[in-house]
Each structure stands twice: as structure tokens, then as C-alpha cells.
Amino acid sequence: MVHMPSSGPLLSAYTRRQALTALGLAAAAGLAACTDKPKSGTGSVPGEPPKPSPKAGVAITAPAGGAKNVPAGTEIVFTVRDAPDAQVALTDEAGKPVEGAMHPDGQGWLPKSSLDYGQTYTATVTATGDDGVAATATAKFTTMAKPGKQVRFTTFLGDGAVVGVGMPIILRVDRAIPKDQRAAVQRRLIVTTTPVQEGIWTWYSDTELHWRPKEFWQAGTKVLVNMRVGGLPCGGGYFGRTDLTLDFSTGASLVMTVDDKASPKVMTVTKDGRVLKKIPVSLGRTSMPSSSGTMVVIEKLPKTVFDTRDDPNPANRYVTPIDYAQRLTWGGEFIHSAPWSVDDQGKRNVSHGCINMSPANAKWLFSQTLVGSPVTVKGTSRALEYGNGWTDWDKPWDEYVKGSAI
Predict the structure, then answer these.
(1) pTM score
(2) Which positions are annotated as active-site residues?
């Protein structure tokens, strides 16, 4: 399911028509209004007496009235007949209103946060037909006791972070979610982007979800992730531990590209569509080629030490201080300063798989990039292994979508 942006703050009452507008379906409603069928209350043939307006009908389908042990992450699901709008109200045992809003897909009304455990609530849905008469449905239900089996959802990004335009949203769970529960979990991970950009969640592994837009993020995008998983069934008797939110933004559109077949061998650095610099580089030698594919900067280390003394090949063992290292793969490919290979940069590949550049160029590039800045390498003899780093962009969009809810 592609999660489209939600449309504003959560309210105590929210109409189905508003929810449809939030999903960008207002145009479809407009088309329906442009048919040449007679409106309610008019005759189909001139001179006929007006037909009575149909009476509205409404029914709550979940939770059922009188239901016990309802998950605290429940939502109010209902149907409406012959009415354009429906208003939802939820109150606790003391009659206090519970804030909430329609899910952006218009399929259910969500409380602002997960409900309290072991409490009784009353849901009321009201719809008014063209005749002005309101129809009402009510369901009283009781939530379950706090479960002993809970799934924890986490993200390492912090609120207010500024990331590169290739940064996926990464969400981890401490227990694998069964495949038959994954679509329901994804539906509760609501991503809002400003400006609006199409994107989707995919299962990067059994315990990790990623969300990426169809294209690289637009520069300066504001992102809000509303993870409505508290009390949500997660399969096997487990339930989401708590709701979470995350807000971050993207920086400038900085993109790096390297073509090993080009001469000279350079990294082209483009910012907001303008080439800033072409940097001479040396890639991996024939026996240890660099990976071809689209990667992103995973971490930035002003100073570190590369220690390969556990390499099975004695010829590849070394301990070397490194400046301005930017990790691209978990397997150990970096962009970094390499003063020892300056004479080879732009001409020959002599590294152990990394992208070597001069100290001055490495320092300059380090000042330009962010975690999540994308790097595309092509023309080498080795393809990037999917999952060796944050390789979300190394799959075409259609193939990436196939990983959703499976």
C-alpha cells in the first residue's frame, strides 16, 4: 500500500468526505456529481411528483457492540448509506471525548493514540441524509488487558535530523512480523511529506522496514512519520508496544556519480542540478573491485583506523589511519582521503574497493555531504549486493514495490 500524506491534525470528529479529500479523491467525487441522473427529490420525467429523499443509514462494523478484549490499537470501522458525510465520536467510561481522525485511506477512524488497556469506550457514528434526518449507530466495547507479549518498533534517526536526499526511512522491530500481518502493520505507518512525494514501505528484512520515495527526495522536504502501532496485533499473540512519531527533513540535493569506464576517472558532484566539482578518484583494483550500484552515505568519520588484520589473505592485511571516511557498504567500501594514491587518482584503480581521493578533495566532499547522500558507481566488474548497505535505490521502483507486505 502506498501511504499517502495525511491532511492535518487529528480531530475529535471527522467526516468521511474529509478523509476522501485527504487522499486526493475529491476529483472522483466531482465526477460523480457531474452525471445527468436526476437529483434526489426530483422527478425523472417533467411533471412527475418529487421522489422522497432516501433515508440515511449507518452501521459500525468494528468493534462490535459489546465486544470484549478489543486490541488497544483498534480503529472504528463503519458503513454509511445514502449520506455524504459521517461524524465519529468516541468517549471513555467517564464520557470524556477521545480525539481522533479518519485514516488517510478513508477505511477507518483512528484514535489519536492507542486506547487505555482494560477500559470501556463508546463509539457513535452519525450520518445525515438529504432529507435532513440523522441516522446514528452506537457500539460499546472494552479493551483487552495489557498484553505480556509486545513488539518494540524503533528508529535510529532523531527528531529534527537533516539527511541526504537518498536517505530511506528505516524502522526496526525486535521480532519478525508474520507475512499475513505485514500489510496491516504497514497501513499504520503513516508518512506525510511536504511537498507531497509518492513512496512506499518495503520489508528490507524480516525485522526491518524501509520507506523511500519513488525518486530521490526533493531538497528541503519535511517528513513526518506517525507510527500508530501501540496495541496493534502483530501476529502470534504479540502486540505493538507503543505509538511513535519521527520528524526530519532533507538537505540540498547533493548527488555523486562515478563511471569507472570514463577517462579520466572522476567523481562528479552535483548539487541542486549544478555540477560543483569533478574529483579525480581511484577505485578498487582488479582483484578487489568496487561495487557498481547506487549506495548512500551510511556514516561519516572525520578520523578512523582501517584494521584488516583478520583478512584471510595476508596480502590484504593492514592497519592504516584514515581521514574523512564516508561508509557506503557494510562490507567496508568507503569514500576517503588517500594521500598514498594521489598519483594514481584519475588514472588507475589501486584501492581495496574504496573510492580514493586526495586529502584536499576528501575534506571538501566531507563538508558537503550528509548521511543519506546518494552515490552511484558504474562500470566496475562487481555488482552491488542488495542489503550491503542501504541499497534501496539499487532496485527499480516496480521491483522495490514488490517487497511491500511480503
Answers:
(1) 0.82
(2) 336, 354
